[in-house]
Amino acid sequence: MSIPVNLNEYEALARERLSPMAYDYFAGGANDEVTLADNMRSWQRLRLHPRVLVDVSHIDTTTTVLGQTVTMPVITAPCSFNALAHPEGECAVARATTAAGILQIVSMTASKSIEEIAATDQGPRWFQLICFRDREITRDLVRRAEAAQCSALCLTIDQPMQGRRERDLRNRFHLPPGVTMKNLEPYAADKLSADDSSPLAKFVDEMFDATLTWEVVSWLRSITHLPILVKGILTAEGANLALEHGAAGVIVSNHGGRQLDGTLSTCEALPAVVDAIGGRAEVLVDAGIRRGTDVLRALALGARAVIVGRPYLWGLAVDGEAGVSRVLELLRQEIVLSMGLTGRAAIREIDRALIV
Length: 356
What we know:
The chain has 356 residues and is α/β, with parallel strands linked by helices. Helices cover 43% and strands 12% of the residues. It has helices at residues 7-17, 20-27, 34-45, 89-100, 114-120, 135-147, 166-171, 185-188, 199-207, 215-222, 236-244, 266-277, 292-300, 310-341; strands spanning 63-65, 68-70, 74-76, 103-106, 125-129, 153-156, 228-233, 249-252, 282-286, 305-308. The chain has an 8-stranded parallel beta barrel with strand order 3-4-5-6-7-8-9-10, surrounded by 7 helices. A two-stranded antiparallel ribbon has the order 1-2. Helix 1 (7-17) runs antiparallel to helix 14, helix 4 packs across helix 5 (114-120) and helix 4 (89-100) packs parallel to helix 14.
């Protein structure tokens, strides 16, 4: 096997190894997948303005996110069902992120429980969740995240109902035996069995609360000592409301193009959100990050760090933990090179002057 030299090559290899159903589940977006494609293209359209004759003999990629020191401004995203890519799933990702010195965000719909992941690896991680109709389920998930030493909660707000993912409909997506939403088994084991329809779509329809308002952020703030990041922000209005209701930060996200097709790319949405926040809280961004130059573009527009999802899944599918580690290392190398070639020796030197 030739060794991939970039993140896109990992996707090509992963597609060969995954079942068509699993590949489409990870790779697909909503409807015509316009937003899915725009998420990548928008970063590529931004041109860079390098500084020259700057001492870049030493490049420092370290930064902090919510006070946590990380070796580079990259976080692994809360993707569902990592075990579709590799039997060790989120546990393998946990070990790889810890080895890389970065944060992992564990999905509420992970294929390994938060307790299993914490027992496997003691590295820093956050927990992503959605508020249920039954608030006691959400309350219990928060308690479990706290007990597992998660240092923050990521509240996803852009999924009051499931986006129309046509690849999943064509494939009649279902979970193979042995793969389930492990964190949710205590609350809804009867709804998680594999059948001829998506168990995730069924679960969303029956358990998620489409009546939620901004009050849910305040309520979540009232039941935990953990900082809360609101994931799914695309507007200045949303950013301000998140902070008004107690969020410690926001994640500019369109769910990887998997919910509302035709919305803004995260690259396009980021500047207005950063300006609205005005330094009052940290801003993260996900979707479409494939190169070290994309990371620099995001930081130049005001993001504290980026969140990557599909790339680490491709690495996981190709070579388990080692594949995730290799993907993260490739991204680190590209960040270092991009910083050197743009005359930025430290993360703090990356600002909007980098973007033409």
